Amino acid sequence: MGIGSASGIISSLSLLMSATVQAATIHWTGGAASNDWNAAANWSTAEVPGATTDDSAIFAGSADSTTLAMPFSFANASSITVRDDAVVTLNANLSGINQFYLAPNANVAGGTVVQQSGTVSAQTVKVGNSNTALSESWYTAAGGTLSVSGELYVNKGTFSLVGSSATVTADALKLTNTGGLDFKLGASGVIPIQVANQLTIGAESTLTIDGSAYAGNGGTNVLVQFGSFSGIFDPANIVIDGMDGASISYEDDSMNLVIPDHVATNVVFSSSTNWSSAVIHPSDDVVVDSGATVTVGTDGAANSLLLNGTLKFELDTVGDSSLTLNTLTFGAGWAIEVDGSGYEGMDLYFPIILATGLPTSLTNTVTFYGFGEREPALVAQDDGLWLRLIAPPSLSVRLCSLVPESTVATDYSNSVFAATRALKPTGSAWQPSFNEAHVMDTTLSQAMLGSENHSWDLTVGRAGQIASFRVPTIGEIIPPQWQHKSWPGGSDRSPWIDEVWQGVAVRTPAANSWYIHQGGTYLFDPIQTEPFYSPQLAAELDAENHSFTTINWGQQAHTSIFTDDDPTNDYQSYVLYFTRVRDLGQGLIEVSLGFYNYGHDHVDHFNMPWGGIRLTNLREYFLSKPDGTWALATDGWDGDEDRYKDYDEAGGWVAFCNSTNAATPALGLVYGNDPEPLLSKQTRKSYMWWKQTVTDYEADETASRNYGVFATIRKYTLNQGHGIWGRYYFVLGDDVADVETRIEERQLLADESIVLFNYTESNSPLVGYRFSGSGSGFRIEENGLSPDFFLYAHPVTGSFPIYEIIEDDKSRYLTWNPYATGVIKTYDGTIAGMRLLGFALPSGEVAGSPYAYESLDTIMAAAPGNYLPSGETLSVRTATAQEAWRIDHFGFADNTGDFADTANPDADALNNLGEYAFGGDPTNALDIGYLPKVGSGTNGFEYVYARRTTPGHGLTYTVENSSNLLSNDWKTAAVVELPNPGTLDADFEAVTNRVDTAVKSNAFFRVKVDRENK
């Protein structure tokens, strides 16, 4: 029988209920103190618009002005309104928009939208919807893509197109009587607005064209491409600046700007002025008279230049300053100067003068100033003079102090070491058409007296890669950077990016793997015309310790994956590389290589290192075995032809030599051993592999790829907020046997070659920072004496890096995420400057910490547009009372070194903790603060000591007594603290403690001090 009825038939009733979610009008408030669209706290209803229905997002009033840098997409067809003088800057991808309104209603003030990058997709865009709006609206397309599937409507307002970086498409473009178009031409003009159907021009619509930046030739330039059009601009409503004789024409499918051919003129500068003060066309001939100084502050061009006076290049924040000429002639009394005092960008290699046939002697006669430690140098190329700069000095050298100490003793006898970050060409034969000044950062050298086999010159590249390694008796060891011309990018596909000694971080499986090259990006993308190396964020050359340390943001190598403007499907990089190259003496070089993953991807495959050698100079491989012997790799290895070997199948090193009998000068690479047991996240044994890429050798070093690869692979799962160190050594020898002897004598295989990062709140140094200003006036400086906040100098477990980023429009940001402003292609020049400031912890991880923290959002509230949280709530250290005391006396807050509690730098009776506890000066042996006093009171013995009263001082004081000094039996029993302590000063009180003589007839006293936050 069925359940519920005698007949076995179940009867049921279903009630269908429906509900309608009403569309909401949601105002931007910026309550999250960020510019993240997806942060609910930024909206008046505490929910993100469009999440559930067709909401309307409104920016109203200048207080709601913001920069949207995070990509977002409406789940439903929704609208955006900008009005009442609000200004919205777009550096994001916006999609799912129904109506995009600027001042949609009568009696409201206009709104402004400035699109700098990203893709905006909307059904309709209306720039001023009502004739009775209180003021005009503006939509400026300065970059990115605006795609309007319906009508782009301009009424009481102006649609502006700037330069040739923005793309605008629409089904229809309609200008009413009060609507206008504005074109600001770049050097090459503009990209035409593409209108699929009709362009409608009102009788009183306006057209404004600024051609002052145009550097092209005469001819017809399309402004708007359309299917059909209605109406034309009244000539009285057309304004064309900076282009004498230019006019507007209309064809069946286009509206055009007709530019007459320029008539070359002679421009003479007789007094000091700026190049831009005279509108110089590329066909003009220019003379700079004797005694005159002409300053090139932005890019300029001319047909010829006769230089009798001074030509001065003045770099701005991001470096714009160059001159393109057909001919440059030098008269009497000429001079060229380059002023870099205003430049704050990354390392640089760009043309100052583009002209052919310039004498190479110019590189030695140009005057530089204002560059500080950036080591400027000019390089003469076939196309002109190029300026080479290293990256700006890091704000704190403490950032580079994290590398584990060397465990191998140094031996610098009979040797001379040298190091420089100035340009030092190698003289090697390289395949790329790029000058090696593109890659060179620092050169380290060791000359072994009487032993050329153990002497060397090594060039560390901008990304921390080893780009050149020369030995007098061997020659250049690094390959010639050649790639097969049938591959994308041809022979210049990997200029010092692949065929170098470097680290590589990989996320597998192979079907969806990506490769973060320490070196940088392959030249796959057509827009990438120059190498892009992993940006250097901090560096330190320590000549005293024979080392160079660099920190770099690793780059995704395979840039061909970038196919659209949607960043959600791109392989981004959140991996930092830490590299120290150190000379240990006697032909031994130590390389420490660290990886830190601060992204959500689990990186699980590491090359420590990847590299190779020129087969023309070091043709043969000799592999070590576990039993201490070694063999020629081409002869097989115990009958095994496999070119992969687990570490426990090998002896921890390989040597390269140019003879099969191992009797010529050799290079050894010591890659070490696995930990025993394997690390907990080490998924398998480490292994190494080798490959000789060619079998036919030619005398010309650059005739083929000429590359023998050797790589070591660590399979370790590196989760977010964790890091790992690897270490390897280069060993030079008279032959392979000498390499083996040196490895044994220096005990290079004694230590594990892989260890985990172990930086904590207590052992990481702090770096203090202070900021000022906001917007374009925002600046940050290292300031440990009066900081606004501290960052950890080292990547404490779970922490995020904090970067200072300058973009090509000179805007400045602090953020953990280099992609926060919508950057997609990191090599496209959007990021013009970048340096690491330190590390901050997620706010959720500092709860219960003994240290003082503050939310970075709160601290940066005075400059909210200059801090991009990018979805993370991070906290930074603020000074505890004791840290403030350390700052006052030492200039640093750290409990390390001479500043540590247990240290006693002035060698008096008290260590630093005692000096802090009793008011002493840790830098003055004559000042140990308030001394305790012992005496007899009315009812017993009294012990009076000074106790700190500073709020949050973090100390506990305990008075103990003993009947003798031999037993070391100290007790707190019988000690009574009397009430009402006396005041010594603003930070100390006098505390009296008593022991009753009825209890003890004699007593010894001491006060014990402990830190609450140990």
Features:
single chain; 13-stranded mixed beta sheet; 10-stranded antiparallel beta sheet; globular; disordered N terminus
Structure, explained:
It is a single chain. The chain is mainly β and 1014 residues long. It is 3% helix and 41% strand. The protein contains 4 helices and 73 strands. Strands 1, 2, 4, 6, 8, 10, 12, 14, 15, 17, 18, 20 and 21 form a 13-stranded mixed β-sheet that branches. Strands 43, 44, 46, 47, 49, 50, 52, 53, 56 and 57 form a 10-stranded antiparallel β-sheet that branches. The longest helix is centred in the last third of the chain and has 10 residues. The N terminus is likely disordered.
Average pLDDT taken over every residue: 89
Sequence stretches where pLDDT stays below 50 over 5 or more residues: 1-21
Summing up helix and strand content along with how strands pair, one would put the structural category as: mainly beta
Distance between the termini: 74 Å
Q: Tell me about the biggest sheet?
A: 13 strands, mixed
**What radius of gyration results from the CA coordinates?**
35 Å
What share of residues are in beta strands? Answer: 35-45%
Overall 3D shape: globular
Query: How many β-strand stretches?
Result: 73
> Treating each run of at least 4 consecutive H or I residues as one helix, how many helices?
4
User: Helical content, roughly?
Assistant: under 10%
